[in-house]
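Regression test attached.
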Amino acid sequence: MMKAYFSDLVKGIEAKIEQAPSEATPRKIFALEVARLGERLYSGTTPVAWCGVTAPFDLLGAMGITSCFVEFVGGMLAATGMEGAFLEEAEQLGFGRDTCGYHRAVIGAAEKGLMPVPDFLVATSSPCTGGVATVENLARHFEKELFVLNVPQPDNPAGVAYLADQLRDLAAFVTAHTATPLAPDRLAQSIQLSNQACDLLDEAFQLAGHIPSPAQGNEMSNLGIVLALLFGTPAAVTVATAYRDAFRQRIAASAGNGGHERLRLMWIQNRIQFKQPITEWLADAHGAVIVCDELNNITWDAIDPQDPWAGMAERAIRLCINGTADHRTRLLQDMARRQKVHGAVNPCHWGCRQGTGARGLIADSMKQIGVPVLNLEVDCVDSRNFSEGQVKTRLEAFMEVLAAKPSPWQL
Amino acid sequence: MYYLGLDLGSLSCDAVLIDEQGDIVAAAVVPTGARNLEAIERAKAEVLSAAGIGADAVRATVSTGYGRDRVADRLAAVTEITCHARGILALRADTRVLIDIGGQDSKVIRIDSQGRVEDFAMNDKCAAGTGRFLEAMARALQVDIEQLSDLDHGAMQNITLSSMCTVFAESEVVSLIADGTAVNEIVKGLNRSIASRTASLVKRVCPDLNGYPVAMSGGVAHNNGVVRALGEVLQCEVTVPDRPDAIGALGAALIARDKSR
């Protein structure tokens, strides 16, 4: 079923782009490449690894593995409006309804036979132990071997060396399953493509900070975190180039978000994955535009293609979803200043200890720089827990607060 | 000319009519019921009748409350947060923290020295601790909701209601009655439960009250026991204006006047 779904999706988007190449928005190009990834995952033609969010997808790709973090499945099911049955399946197994919807959905999907059987699994201790437990559950379910990457929290040489050693061990683990050793040239090529994509993506994110922002609607939603699945491939470069070029063109043509931008918002942690009208309504009713996402942030340096281990380790350690709340709040403050936001929205995804644990510290640190934060209580995956009126009232009141408040940036 | 504020809440629809000076000319509170458009018309008709004016004398209407977008012929729809802040400032200009507990929402609003909403917090996930909660508890205790207000008098114990889920709390109350616990002790326990839940919202927007004047609005502000319990938990005086359930509508009317100028 899923193989046919992704194949049809790929064909449909390709046909639309072919019919009207000039209307190939960056989001459409992004959707096409993600659909192609989905098609590969379900094709049965390449080895598959189900992973944690911070796995090195370019390393795995260089070793011929099609890999994906498990939370992607929850997001995809919610985006297509199909999450309910899979969440219920997990709940019937005993997972509480207030635990993470991403993880419940993927557990349910595995139980219902929706996920391709992996060749092995790679859990990552970052961003959350719930993710490790979920991947461990899947390993038990599929009766496949599990490799756990322990991502240290401190960003120091010892931590980097510790993780770099684990990444080498991971390569050996993969070789043991595929009988194909890692080709250094192939890894170097993969890393070069990752670096190129990250440079382009970083440029696109900076352009999104232009006043008014060229970013429109939900087009930056999930971009940084999902594009990591394509790192090491030309597809990531294609997508990042499309965003960079589209934003450049819109700025040049003064055709950003329709010229109605009154409030600039930052979205903290993950977006709401199921269909809902919030983003469009914010723009239409309040001129409020989401100009940056916490998860769209390139927080690491270019990786040395000839000696990538330390660089890949640094990347995982420096991600905004790893490390202390202090690390996270500094990144958020920098982003808020850079993108000149008036306020930030933190959905505080239900059941997410990683996402909600620091919310008071985040709100305080943003207040220090004059940026108010709205903490919501939203299940970003389970639409059964979503009350549009309740969320709209909170957001609308927040917009009223922001509109009555002088901008911290004297725009 | 006159200005109308309509607050369409889950339990009641409140209307306030003010004149150019911002003085209240008439106010009405009618049950919302299942047909909220009818409730709007009834509330409007009541205030127009009480003021002895026709609809054409109303220059502008601003709506608020969960049904704010359902009000026709409005100048604007504004959230309860902004309207309650505006309304309380007209009556008690020194208020810095406003607690509003309505039918299904409880909210705490922090107001800065210039009268702007600085921060706010609302109940999430469930409506325990709101007007609906008190209705259910009154039903379990077999008393009218108005009677709850002073039924805590003389209570000496500190009964803790272990759950703030309305359904579970109702069965807990039934169990306490069956165990022979005095009604005033149960009511005091309920009031403290609501106060404790609300206090956490207060602390969220104002970690240190630091002598800030605290006021309360919304229908639950009529319940003296809850107000007393809030004062005890927050260790401050909680003042209640006249017609606390009409503060949102008053704010809406004042915003209608301000926007029309």
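Expected vs. actual: identical. Chain A is about 55% helix and 10% strand.
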